Structure formats: C-alpha cells, structure tokens
Amino acid sequence: MTTVLGRRHRACFSKQILTAKVWPASNERRSIVNVTALILRTARTASLTFALLFATLTSVAHARECGDGADGFGRWLEGFKKRAAAQGISQRAISSGLAGVTYDPRVIRLDRNQRSFKLSFEQFYARRVGTALISRARARLKTHRATFDRVERQFGVPREIVVSIWGLETNFGADTSGKFSIIRSLATLAYDCRRSPFFTGQLFDALRIIDDAHMRPEELRGGWAGEIGQTQFLPTPYIKYAVDFDGDGRKDLIRSVPDILASTANFLKGHGWQAGQPWGPGTANYEVIRDWNRAQVYQRTIAVMASKLAGR
C-alpha cells in the first residue's frame, strides 16, 4: 500500500512539476499573441487614420488650387506665379503676361453654355457650312495655291482639309475679333475647378510663348477659351506644332497665312495623318480629325466639307 501510494504520489508530483513547467510557457505565448494582435490593431488604426488625414490634406490642398467664383482668385494667381517660376518661365514673362489679370465671369458662363455642339450633324452643318463658305474656301485655294502646294509637299495633308478647318474655325480670319484676353481667359479657366489641370498647363504654355518672343502679351487676344489665331490653336499645340513657314523668325498664327496653313497641317501630321489616304469615318485619318476637335458633329463637318471641295 505504501509502495502504491508512493508511486501515485510520485506520479502526481511529477505531473505537478510538468504542469509547473508548461503553464508559464503557454501563458507567455498567449501574452505574446495578445500583444502582437494589439500592435497590429493599433497599426491598422494608425494607418487608417493617416490615410484619412492624408486624403483630407490632399483635398484641402486641391481646393486651394482652384475655385468656383471670384473669391480667392488673387491668392491663387500669386501661387500660380510661383509655380510658373519653378517651371523655368522667366520673371519678365510672368510679370508682363499676368500684370493686371482678373477673374472673368463671362468666360465661365460661355464655358457652361456650349450649345452648338449639342446640335445634330445636319443642324450643325447647315448652320456652319453654306454656299458662301464653300465659295470663300475655293477662292482661298486659288489665292494661296503656291502655299498650299508647299504645305502638301512638306506635311502630306490635303489642302481641302486644311482650308476646311480654316473656314470653320474663324471664317478665314474674319471672326477673330480679339474680344478676349487669352491670358485672362486661361487664368480664369485654370482657376475654375471644372478643368483646372488642363487649363493650368495651357496658361503655362501661353507664358512660354511670351517668353520665347513669338507673341507679346497685348497680341494674345482671341477666343474665350484661350484660342490663338485664325485656326484657333491653344497654347500647348502652338508650342508643339506652330511653324514659321514664311521665314520671318516668328510663328504668327494671327496674320501670316503661310504660318497658319503650315501649322495646321503640322498638327495633323504630328497626330498621325497618313498622306494619300481617305479621311472619311472609320479611317485612320478620321481619327486624326478627332484629335483636332472632340465634338463628333465638328469632325464630320470637316470631313464632309473637305470632300465637297475635293469633288468627292
């Protein structure tokens, strides 16, 4: 009996010793797991908080870069001048180009009310192209035949396409009233939140045009959306595609017909125009016309008017 009890006692004692060794280790592991879980939860919470804070700060920063009315335009303009300088634009161009520039509410009203592009093709074509415009286009083709010959040889774009764009954009220069300051219009649209990044880039390039001495600030007058010259180039396409085709050292899209025609053709060539190929819907060249103007009615009108002039 004593021997049995002794063995049982030793077994119990051994179990107690074993238990005494195991439990502390298990508790330690549980503590480690609990602490790890707490750290992970804290990290996730901190990451979420940081993400929300970052999003908020980004939103606030973006809000300061644009506005929905005249309030804040002056502050925005001062910030823009610093960004222009950081882009390498000279202080001379910044000062002369942006001197006295104010917010123009007329530009915003026009931007929100572009009704003509909501017409059907038939309505748009009838409104923009008539026998008078076709007659004027044919007259321009005769008057500037030598220039059109040079343009076709160098850029591979048919004269009918170029003259159609010229006529549709400004009625061969007759509709370039210069009513709007291009810099003021672009500054207003760059500040406006609807398309701020796009027009901010255009405003930078307008100042580069001044910086490169192609145009003076007072010459930069045109359409309400910042278009320059008789075929209505925005500043960024001007920087990329404008051509000094008359050799006078300036890229003059307001008065120089050779510069106007060559620059228009160079834009189309730069966007992939395929010389000698058709330009109707479904063709590669029709896609290039889309790069000139994103409105479907305008694209089709260019193609149809050019075909009519070409006798197709």
Describe the structure.
The protein contains 14 helices and 2 strands, in the order H-H-H-H-H-H-H-H-E-H-H-E-H-H-H-H. With 312 residues, it is mainly alpha-helical. It has 2 domains: 64 residues; 233 residues, Bacterial muramidase (Helicase, Ruva Protein, domain 3, Orthogonal Bundle), CATH 1.10.8. It has a two-stranded antiparallel sheet. The longest helix is centred in the first third of the chain and has 63 residues.
Uncertain runs with pLDDT below 50, 5 residues or more? Answer: 1-25, 48-63
CATH class of the largest domain: Mainly Alpha
Global Rg:
34 Å
Q: How many strands, which pairing sense, and closed or not: the largest β-sheet?
A: 2 strands, antiparallel
CATH architecture of the largest domain: Orthogonal Bundle
What separation lies between the terminal Cα atoms? 123 Å
Strands, count: 2
- The coarse overall form would be globular
Domains (count): 2
